């Protein structure tokens, strides 16, 4: 099976976490035929090979990015304008997606980038509460009930073909949690933290080029 086929098979049957805290809802776009068609187009376009890839691990998908399109860090606007994949999603933008695709261009463009890197998240599915994005670590009870699920789903994805070094998109709670999990379950040899794209766009926009350079310096070392 190609990398694309493994990913598509995974998302066609990705598990939904159970027994979540009250009022926490799961973002699950993968049961819609339209999303499945978009995923097939994207993954066959960029992952139609058997190369191992470096994992870039976010927090969990948001409403306007992966929680909508099914593709991590890719909102409907970037899907059309950057990847030339026409779509009928509500054309809302995600701040993280804006940063990610500027960074992807710095690396050399989508073809080079996706040949070397695979985006995922600590939780492959996103969460909302009261209509707002929710991070897995925002509610201690949510993080606690998700641990077995998170480890199981990450192991499934590592089987696609993962390099020993991974990157955490998030230098605070995300990397702290990932390091704790990694020490316990030995998922990767090393996990290196990078500033979270949304944090950059929301709080450090004037230093955007500096952070793109930081990503370039770290990620380009892993490109073969």
From TrEMBL:
It holds the Pfam family UDG. Residues 45-219 form the Uracil-DNA glycosylase-like domain. It comes from the Bacteria. This is DUF4918 family protein. It comes from Fulvivirga marina. The lineage of its organism: Bacteria, Pseudomonadati, Bacteroidota, Cytophagia, Cytophagales.
